[in-house]
Amino acid sequence: MGKKMLFVVCCAVLASLFSGCSDNKGAKKFTVGFDSSFPPYGYVENGQFKGFDLDLAREVAKRNAWEIVLKPINWDAKDMELNSGSIDCIWNGFTINGRENAYEWTEPYVDNSQVVLVKKTSGIKNLAGLKGKIVAVQTDTPVQKALSAKGAKEALGKTFKKLVVTPNYNNAVMELEAGSVDAVAMDIGVAQLKAKTSDKFMILSEVVVTEKYGIGFKKGNTALRDAVQKTLKEMVSDGTAAKISATYFNGRNVLILEGASAKKAPPAVAVKAVAPITKAVKKAEEAAKKASSN
Asked: Which among 110, 117, 162, 290 would be 20 to 30 A from 220, CA to CA?
């Protein structure tokens, strides 16, 4: 075998070894699918992708030495993107409720509620006040399903003049501001941000439905799901996740995920239990010696 050929073979062997190491450690690229019009979880600002979920994902990737790819997706096409392999997960205020068996889920990390955003001048004070009104929701969201036929809040939805479905919450809020809809049923985190950045809006105190957010992976992809969840729990334990939350939620920690559990020391009672037994054995031995000497 010539030197040149030997060099090529050696390189190939080394490449395969390094490739094997990479596979054992995890994905080389970590592609996160998200809705880019869903602040504060994921959005575009000055041409940059920002958001609570995106910052969490960046930190997870950093700790695993993965190259992160943030991919804005059409929310209607999220399943196609995931099943085709063009994204590794859906991570952007993604509701578990009603989708429990459709994905490989992490444990819930945010407890989210669906609320109603209205104009302060609308005169609407509660959910009953939505009777005869036009209410907007984002497509393929739990609140849309809850207010529609056979949904948990179908009775409430039937009181509306019309339930309008929009592609995203930005469009819905624009329609609210323009007066083409009377209210928007939406995630509380997004609603709070809209109410904070504009004095035109307010949130009704009554909650439509409650739900929990998780990170959704393709069915069967438990290895990557477990790796992400493990790292996220470590971030909760060391306080990094809480710091990221504080940045987007006015100093609040919205995470409900428990941190990585520490290794527990053997219970002290097990050690103490040995002492009485040992003493009893010694007494028995001494009694036996006395008996033999007599």
From this structure: 110
